[in-house]
Design a protein that fits this description.
The protein is mainly α. It is built from 13 helices and 2 strands.
Length: about 300
């Protein structure tokens, strides 16, 4: 389940990039994904456990932050990053979130954290420096890098809030409500009557090795919502019934690797030998960070932000 979800998320990174280059603004793409996912998950929850959607007034502020910052913010920042950076590098930046969570647990929550977290920090920073090839000056788009790093911080917030809130609520209803708040946030910021629906009628090139083929943008929009969000979200959440949250997170590290391969095979986004080595070092660091904390309650897994 986790591997299939990770592969679908990885594929969605390339599809999202095609839509962004095709003219859909990052904000509009985030609104479309959040609202589409909310509608689908709402239908699922209403058909199975409608009572689970109830929430108390005390939960409201956390749910709002969880949905607006954790979901809407992470997705928007990721879309900004992949438009300006290779998909694999954008994901590497975002996937340093578990390291930030481990550091938060150590210094703010004073939880027991294994000493390997320091090795994880050193490896991740070294790997990112190699990816960016800092010895030759920053070779990557600065705004793209800033968006990727910001996405990591917001995703860490999502994990921390989710870890707290899932103790009193099942992951499916929590994810549905979070998407609901994200959808409401974007609807207020950009009312649906101002959404650029006309763009979805346009035909766009599939770019890269498929540049000779064109499809309507609305085809890609359907893939974005269903194959890129609803199906992998459902698989990831269902996997928590068979694996611990930490195991899901570790197996989910397939995603940045798969995203890099797909972007290379489809878009021709080739990384240099040094960047590949740096990426491997980052992934090793993140894996160490994932295993540095004591086991906690399951968290709604969102390597599915991409």
């Amino acid at each position: 389940m986790v591997v299939t979800a990770a592969l679908l998320f990885a594929l969605n990174g390339t599809i999202s990039k095609i839509m962004l280059i095709g003219g859909v603004p990052a904000q509009a793409l985030t609104e479309l994904r959040s609202t589409g996912a909310f509608v689908a998950l709402l239908a699922l929850v209403l058909a199975t456990r409608p009572a689970s959607l109830r929430f108390s007034p005390r939960e409201l502020p956390l749910l709002a932050v969880y949905g607006v910052a954790g979901l809407a913010g992470t997705q928007w920042l990721y879309f900004v990053a992949i438009k300006r950076l290779p998909v694999g590098i954008a994901l590497l930046l975002e996937f340093t979130a578990p390291l930030l969570v481990a550091l938060w647990a150590r210094f703010v929550m004073h939880e027991p954290v294994l000493r390997r977290v320091w090795l994880a920090l050193a490896l991740s920073l070294t790997g990112l420096a190699v990816v960016a090839q800092v010895w030759g000056g920053l070779t990557l788009d600065r705004l793209g890098v800033a968006a990727g790093v910001a996405a990591a911080f917001v995703l860490a917030l999502y994990f921390l809030l989710g870890e707290h809130m899932v103790r009193g609520r099942d992951p499916v209803s929590l994810t549905c409500l979070a998407f609901g708040f994200a959808a409401v946030f974007w609807a207020v910021l950009r009312p649906w009557w101002r959404f650029p629906f006309r763009l979805l009628q346009q035909r766009v090139s599939l770019l890269g090795h498929l540049s000779g083929h064109e499809v309507p943008l609305w085809w890609l929009a359907i893939s974005l919502v269903l194959l890129g969000t609803v199906v992998p979200f459902t698989l990831s959440i269902a996997s928590l019934g068979h694996l611990r949250a930490r195991q899901v997170g570790l197996v989910g590290m397939v995603e940045p690797v798969a995203a890099t391969v797909i972007a290379y095979l489809w878009l021709g986004e080739a990384l240099g030998a040094a960047q590949i080595l740096g990426g491997v070092i980052v992934i090793i660091g993140v894996v160490l960070a994932e295993t540095a904390r004591a086991e906690t309650a399951p968290v709604p897994v969102v390597e599915m932000v991409p």
